Amino acid sequence: MIKKYLVLYGFAFSISLSGFAKDYLLSTNKTSLLISASEGKKSLFQYYGGKVTEDDIKGIYEAGTALNVETYPTFGVTPGIEKALSVVHADGTLSTDLVVDKVNQYQSEDGNILEIVMKDRVYPLKIKQFYKAYKETDIISTWVEILNTGSKPIHLHKFSSAFLPVKRGENWLTHFHGGWAAESMLEEEKLTNGQKIIANTDGTRNTQTDYPSVMLSVDGRPQEETGHVIGVSLAWSGNYIIKIIANNMMINLLAGILEDNSQYLLESDETFTTPELAMTCSLEGKGGVSRAFHRWALKYKLHNGYKERDVLLNSWEGVYFNVSQSEMNKMMREISSMGGELFVMDDGWFGDKYPRNSAASGLGDWTVNKNKLPMGIEGLVDYAKKQKIKFGIWIEPEMANIKSELFEKYPDWILKDDNRPLTAGRSKTQVVLDLSNPEVQDFVFGVVDDLMKKYPEIAYIKWDANCGIMNYASQYLPSDKQSHIYIEYHKGLVNVLKRIREKYPELVMQACASGGGRMNYGLLPYFEEFWTSDNTDALQRVYMQWSVSNFLPAAAMAAHVSAEKNHNTGRVTPLKYRFDVAMSGRLGMEIQPSDMSVEEKEFAKCAIESYKKIRPIVQFGDLYRLVSPYDNKGIASLMYVTPDKDKAVAFVYKIHHLRRAIIPDVRFYGLDKNKKYRITDLTPDGEKRSLLDGKIFSGNQLMTSGVSIIKDMKEEYSSLALILEEIK
Ligand code: DGJ
Questions:
Q1: What is the C-alpha radius of gyration for the chain, rounded to an integer number of angstroms?
Q2: Where are the beta strands (DSSP E) in 28-136?
Q3: Is the CB of 364 inside a 6 Å radius of any atom of ligand 1?
Q4: Segment 341-395, tens digit of pLDDT
């Protein structure tokens, strides 16, 4: 078949002279997606991988590498593969048969878009399938709009965001599993034929168990810097499913909102838009996938992505619920004297009739507890100003306690079934507000708005959510739309967050949900950062932060130095180790400073000063993961490099302590072979400096033979934080 190729708005598309397949090539710097679509025919997924040009399209077909699989398979007409869409039409028919109506290509501010408009051959149903190549990134995202063009309602039983076919080979799956205080532990397994499901059903905290982000290798066990790996992440904060179906011929990945108990009644003329599935394809292993996601996150998906994050002290592990003016003032004085820039008062500051002295009461009543804080928030804000630091505050605005004035006044704002006894969450008294209800959305918006109107100096909000959806019933949604609760909850939440962002674009917000329950790209566009885990144990954080870094950038990953004896694990680690681990993310502290010795405070001051120097490199640099803690090599190591490769920051952590254990040399990938670098120890422990401190090496040597750190790793919980600077 002879083909002719045209380029339009940065897209290449080919027109077959035979009049059949029209090919649409959508490319980023390093990746390409090839789809063929012709009016009246099926839209077909042909290729997704490393970048190809228009000249290669013919070859993709001739080499037999074209996949030729429907881009959005639907239930009911063809057998075989699992479908992405299943609809019950108004007359009860369950089958759908889509063909291409037209294809549109255009640019938005942030990307090049390919829009495939399809319609059912018989029934009044239209699907718009979008593929968007984000400018200056290697991310292509995809989602669909489902339009009921008929005059009667229809039911959506299945409505995936995407259907992604992947070549069968030695495919491995990388995903991130967890639970409270042990979020995001990496799991890697070779895919065998059958199905693998990654899903979450909590209702509000969708990354507490598994992430909606996975990697799929195409050519064997995934490596950090080599090999062909596809990464996908679903931008949704509610229940989700990622299903990977493998047989000898093909792998099919389906991703979207979890449809269980969420069938959707789509009214005449109504459009249902699925969340976006972001994808990248790397020929530089998992590291390439991560760097592509980080760049995309910083540029497009995190609120104020490229704005430096402050070093803060959070009061939680220091005082828990025992908030008081004097205690807060003391903590503010301490963090200010250690060089911190922000103090965050956590839970425990509110509740009048039902004071928040524990998790059992007060949620919903966002009035200051005058017994604890007689001078109110004003007193705190003023004191912060005196200490020359910013002030932040904790809220959990989507929730209420049964013991609250809010619950007494607005019982119908709660998700609950009036015919059943109420089940409650945290402390057996917590319930979830019904965010499908616009009045509740106004209330939640008002929690932030009232605080900001009264105290415009508030610079930071920690937004928590400590309860999943229980008592599955909405007193707002009609009876035929009760199955919309999981979805409408998150749409309502996003509505609120959009309003907040419009009005308060500079307010920094942290997404927290019982620790790391909200590390997803559904909510991150409204937040600067997320709380990674309530487990601040430095050793376990090495594992968790490693996993988190696969899809999320360090700028967003809150990492706090906590007490010497960790409150969660009881493990005792040196302050240097705790700092070196926290400095590889967005550094903060979560400690009672009055428990620290003078020497420790001095160390903290120096470490914070060092962090400020490396902050742009860590927060916005390119990440190279060097030695994985999951490989059990006795150490873990990672490095951030500036785009010009003139500076880098490397971290090394000892993770096992056995006499005569094998400790590998560390090779600093990601540098420039032709440059020379001086290494400086950023956090020397007293007089003890790394043996590498002050030494100069070529980039070539650092990348090929690497350095031995065995002598620096003698003690249990040894660690290094090193800066590498180009010598001109
Ligand atoms: C859960 C969060 O993860 C903690 O950091 C803390 O804010 C508590 N909630 C407060 O109740």
A1: 27
A2: 31-36, 44-50, 69-70, 85-88, 98-107, 111-120, 125-134
A3: no
A4: 999 999 999 999 999 999 999 999 999 999 999 999 999 999 999 999 999 999 9
Q: Is the CB of 640 under 6 A from ligand 1?
A: no
b/e sequence 642-664, b meaning 16+ C-beta within 10 Å: eeebbbbbbbbbbbeeeeeeebb
Residue positions counted in the chain: 728
- Is the pLDDT assigned to residue 14 strictly greater than 80? no
The DSSP bridge partners found for residue 167 are: 250
In single-letter form, the type of residue at position 266 comes to L
* β-bridge mates for residue 133, sequence order: 112, 140
Amino acid, res. 621 = G
Distance 447 CA to ligand 1 centre (A): 18
Residues 6 or more apart whose Cβ sits within 8 Å of residue 721: 579, 580, 583, 610, 649, 650, 651, 681, 682, 683
CB 96 within 8 A of CB 125: yes
On whether the CB atoms of residues 268 and 153 are closer than 8 A, the answer is yes
Distance 242 CA to ligand 1 centre (A): 28
Structure tokens at 148: 């009921």
What is the number of other CB atoms lying within 10 angstroms of the CB of residue 122?
11
Please name the residue whose Cα sits nearest to atom 6 of ligand 1. 316
* Per-position DSSP letters for 255-292, written without gaps between them: EEE--TT--EEE-TT-EEEPPPEEEEEESBHHHHHHHH
SS3 content of the chain, % helix, strand, coil (to 5): 25, 35, 45
Q: Verify whether ligand 1 is closer than 6 Å to residue 399 (CB atom).
A: no
End-to-end CA gap in the chain: 56
* Contact between 367 and 352 (Cβ < 8 Å): yes
Residue whose token pair is 């220091």? 318
Per-residue pLDDT of 592-638, as tens digits, reads 999 999 999 999 999 999 999 999 999 999 999 999 999 999 999 99
| 71-to-8, 27, 163, 213 alpha-carbon distances in Å | 22, 17, 6, 20
In eight-state DSSP terms, residue 195 is E
DSSP letter at 301? I
Q: How far is the CA of 316 from the centre of ligand 1 (A)?
A: 7
Q: Which amino acid is at 599?
A: E
**Strand 154-159 with 162-167, pairing:** unpaired
Atom of ligand 1 nearest to the CA of 320: 10
Measured in Å, residue 262 CA sits from the centre of ligand 1 at 29
560 strand-pairing partners: 588
* Distance from the alpha carbon of residue 514 to the mean position of ligand 1, in angstroms: 6
CA distance 58 to 25: 12
**Closest CA relative to residue 183, chosen from 457, 494, 558, 589:** 558
Give me the pLDDT at residue 21, please.
66
User: How high is the mean pLDDT of the chain?
Assistant: 96
Closest ligand 1 atom number to CA of residue 533:
3
Ligand 1 center–CA 616 separation, angstroms: 28
Q: Around Cβ 18, how many Cβ atoms within 10 Å?
A: 9
Distance between CA atoms of residues 617 and 547, nearest Å: 19
Query: What SS3 class is residue 474?
Result: coil
Q: Answer whether 528 contacts ligand 1 (Cβ < 6 A).
A: no
- Rounded Cα distance, 153 and 686, in Å: 71
Our answer on whether the CB atom of 512 is closer than 6 Å to any ligand 1 atom is yes
- Residue 430 is given by DSSP the state E
Q: Give the C-alpha distances (Å, rounded to integers) separating 599 from 506, 638, 682.
A: 36, 28, 17
Strands 172-177 and 213-217, by their bridges, are antiparallel
Contact 290, 641 (CB under 8 A): no
Task: Report which protein residue has its CA nearest ligand 1's atom 11.
Answer: 347
Label residue 478 by pLDDT band (50, 70, 90).
very high
Q: What does the alpha-carbon distance between residue 67 and residue 168 come to, in Å, rounded to a whole number?
A: 11
